[in-house]
Amino acid sequence: MNSRVLNPLPGAAVFDPTAVEAIRGALAAFASAQLGSPVEIGPLRRFTVGFSWVTYGLRAKWLEQGTAIERDLILRAGPPTGIFGPYQAYPEFVTLRALTGSAVPVPGVYWYSDDVSVLGAPFFVSDLVPGEAPIPWTHDGGPAFDDRRRVLLGGQFVTALAALHAFRWQDTPVASIGGTKDPRRAATEQVDNWMANLARWSPDRVPMLELAAAWLRERAPQASRISITHGDYRIGNFLETGDRITAILDWELVRLGDPVEDLGWVCLQAWRGRSSYMCHFFEREELRDRYSALTGHEVSLADMAYWEAFGTFKLAIMHYGATNCFARRGFSDLRMAGMGAQIPRLLLQVESAMERAS
Do the strands 45-47 and 255-257 form a parallel or antiparallel pair, or are they unpaired? Predict the structure, then answer.
């Protein structure tokens, strides 16, 4: 299906997540224009999951080559005042489309637009995939995995990551999603990008993060290859049902870069608490060994530790973004305020991650 805007709706209001009927009507008109035939969009129901994009569930009906199609779908919209605003749907959409049918389980995708005249915000539409998302933030510090489920789900988790990093993106639209194709710049460009975000989001300089940025630039490794990097690959960002991972979610930070960046992100303390299991699945060495066996690429614990330190630095900066969108951009989600309250703890974790990697 053509995903570009054919007939933008003139004068669409600025995106308002409470204006569900207006969004529903605009989406129906847009989808109908894409297909060249009517698309019926059922009632929108807001999902509260996710910290970034606004998510709705819906049921859609249309005719495709004379065949009646009826699907449960997801609408994801990037609110103008959200934590990573201004958003783009293109990188996530084309990555998911390219990965459809690959060894990386992803939702099927249908339509997207970065033209804010359609819904008032960039958006895309994908399949609603069955499953629940295990999350690390529970009363006992993590998901209640027994050893069997831990190993079974963990094996699928690392297998999907290895498949993502092995995917041949060069001759697909993914080649245009952003990031870097220069292995020498993979780390330093990321440090520069996140420091630029910090400058946008914090009115004050942050000594711990400036120190971390200098440390990260000085020790930046050269990537052994350039791959699609998910950017937020962790427990909480996949669905599972019946001991099977059904979809990897939350691709808004997807880019081209060093694949070890994703491995380091898996290791963050934020996703495991006091557990020695990365994302509650494997200890560092086993994670490294399983990944290396699957990809055929040796990964050093030192490089993983570097990218874990970088990931902690990046996560701390995200918390400044959450504070900014709540306090200054009018994004009234109290979870953003909660993230702001965690900044002192995150800065201590940045220091600890740097010490471990030194």
Answer: unpaired
